[in-house]
Design a protein that fits this description.
five-stranded mixed beta sheet, Heat Shock Protein 90
């Protein structure tokens, strides 16, 4: 038992460190790299206006376009690491943003159903956990399951908040996946949910899709925080 407890502690510390590093890198990309690229784009646009020949102007505008594309790519990377919408307006909006971006990037039909009591916020660690579970579940549905549709349901009860991510993909052997397919992130999802004293479950059957479920208690000292 002491060894198991030590391993869980190390896993928890690792996950927290990864989350902090993601947030730091996202801020760096957004506040430094993206702003520098935006400034470069403005300078290229100004140089194009002042160019003495059409050939110079065309080349500078082409560079301005490439800089703009790179800027959008950097912003996308920052959002994927740690979406600002999660910090700014909460998990419900973040899940909607995640679903929209997934629809734009893939062929997955992703819908979000949020059944919550109010527009107030959950504690940050709970919102982050719910978002990461949904994000990893969507990644698995896309990369491993060959799913066509995914339904994300967020439901607040009197004492818990539940997240369900259900896809219509190929399904898989859960026990085998947890031991032999670390890329699916099941261990990380389970540990994230355990960090906030929640319950995590994956139900999957070959040919019948997959359901990922997380249930997290919202105790009196971790109630939703008014904004």
């Amino acid at each position: 038992m002491p060894e198991i407890a030590r391993m869980r502690t190390l896993a928890s510390l690792t996950i927290r460190a990864q989350d902090e590093e993601r947030a730091r890198l996202a801020r760096e990309l957004h506040e430094s790299t993206a702003q520098s690229l935006a400034a470069l784009g403005y300078e290229l646009a100004a140089a194009a206006r002042d160019a003495e020949s059409p050939a110079q102007r065309e080349r500078l505008l082409a560079l301005r376009g490439r800089t703009g594309a790179l800027l959008e790519e950097v912003r996308g990377m920052a959002q994927a690491m740690h979406p600002t919408v999660l910090d700014d307006v909460g998990v419900e909006a973040a899940l909607e943003w995640l679903a929209r971006k997934t629809r734009e990037r893939t062929r997955l039909d992703v819908e979000v159903y949020a059944l919550v009591a109010s527009t107030d916020r959950f504690p940050a660690e709970i919102e982050s956990t719910l978002y990461r579970v949904a994000q990893e579940s969507l990644r698995n549905a896309e990369q491993h399951a060959g799913a066509r549709t995914v339904r994300i349901t967020l439901m607040q009860g009197p004492r818990v908040i539940d997240l369900d991510v259900v896809d219509d993909g190929a399904g898989f052997d859960v026990e085998e996946a947890e031991t032999r397919r670390p890329g699916m992130g099941l261990f990380a999802m389970r540990e994230r949910v355990a960090l906030v004293h929640g319950q995590f479950e994956v139900v999957s059957t070959a040919g019948q899709g997959t359901r990922v479920h997380a249930s997290i208690p919202v105790s009196a000292n971790a109630a939703r925080v008014a904004v």
